[in-house]
Amino acid sequence: MGLIAFLIAAAWLAFLCGAGRGADSWTAAVRRGAALGAVYYGLLFSWMIRLPPLIHAGAWLAGAAFGAYVSVAIWHARRLPLWVRAPLAALIWTAPALIAGNPVRPFFGSVVFLTGLHVPIPLPLLQLARPFGETGLVFFLVALVVLAAQAFEDRARPRRAAAELAAVCVLLSAAWVWGATAIRRFDAAAPAKKSLRIACAQHDLPFEWSWRTAHRDDIFKTYERMALEAAGRGADMVLFPQYQIPEDIYREPGRWAGIARRAKAYIALGTNAPVEAGDYGRQAWVMNLVFSPEGKLVGSQIAQHPSPVGRPMVVVGRQASPVEIPGLGRVALLPCFDDVTSRPTRQLSRAGADVVFSLANDSLFKGTIHPRLHLLRSRLRAVESRTHFVRCIAHGFSAVIDPVGRVRDSLPEGQGILFAAW
């Protein structure tokens, strides 16, 4: 299924490049690109139908605008030699992501849904994300597709087409061999001693805010029951997904810290907290909290960007640092959708993170392709940081991902507990 999706995406990209290069004028290139972008991204963003119509329409228009931008840029570059045009097309594609991810003043990371990786790719190729990041990986794939598309167009000139296909094969083979070697080196390394057992409590509680406010005690009892069950099965640390609990746990942990004491385990959970104490109607932080077995708050992390679709009431964090957990090391926390883009993970990795936990909630998009797209982003983050990556999602798919991007274990949609050990 992943291969079919990749071939469809590659064919669309080749068609988009061909539409731009073959247009009679730049206005024709804009029209063709906008039409192709609207169709492709309309399907890719189909999961946004669960959001307000204005957001869904905005995403669809952004896809059309991106298609027009790529098509007209390629039209202007149509007379350049292929060895310039192929990398230039890749640069055109990835430029918005490079601008959005700049370290000086990063823009909103949602641009990754236009320029990023949309489909699974073979594991050896995924390793390119380690040295070059997701943007570098996409650059390489786009350049290959442009070369392959040009070879198809030159099929009436066999020698030229063969040379172009040979270039594709050489580049693809070199990347594959390099990635496979990186995987073998990781597998050959001595395994770490497994001294700490992690549990991910996928609670599958309803998403609606009205239900949450009316069932505060039910929410608490579910957290308590699952934490005690996980601890009873040997977990030293229990993760809970992002969930806007209708209490200010950050300032008044109270009974929530008591769960850690009764379970005699570390508890990490995701929630929202008002920026101003008691003011739930205005600005809020999306954050992760970590409680020790003694019930003390020993770490927190505020999301560095709110969500891929934006929520104006959310105030983003500016700093990221791992939380020290005895026996596990330095733990990086990624609240909500902080694993969608590379920047937060890379920042925490540079700060010395030994393992990454992503606590998120995809419940609004049950039954769509969004949870699988989100899982793909988590795999990229694991490769980029070369650390074990545990994602705890409210309804699924929670997963344990190794440092080369393999999903070692996962939970289907529904309620359950996933265990991992280090």
Question: Which descriptors would you attach to this protein?
Answer:
422 residues, alpha/beta, single chain, six-stranded mixed sheet, 48% helix
How does this model look, in words?
The protein has a six-stranded mixed sheet, with helices on one face. 46% of the residues are buried. Helix 12 (342-350) packs parallel to helix 13. 48% of the residues lie in helices and 17% in strands. It has helices at residues 2-21, 26-44, 53-76, 82-100, 112-115, 123-126, 129-153, 158-188, 209-214, 216-232, 254-263, 342-350, 370-385; strands at 197-202, 237-242, 266-274, 284-291, 297-302, 323-325, 329-335, 355-360, 388-393, 399-401, 407-410, 416-421. The protein starts with a helix and ends with a strand. With 422 residues, the chain is an alpha/beta fold.
Shape: globular
For the record, give the distance between the C-alpha atoms at the N and C termini, rounded to a whole number.
32 Å
What fraction of the residues are assigned to beta strands by DSSP?
A: 15-25%
By secondary-structure content and strand pairing, the structural class works out as: alpha/beta
Strand order of the largest sheet: 5-4-3-2-1-12
User: In which range does the helix fraction lie?
Assistant: 40-55%
Number of helices: 13
Number of strands: 12
Uncertain residue ranges: none
Mean pLDDT: 85
Provide the gyration radius in Å.
23 Å
Order of SSEs, N→C?
A: HHHHHHHHEHHEHEEEEEHEHEEEE
How many strands, which pairing sense, and closed or not: the largest β-sheet?
6 strands, mixed
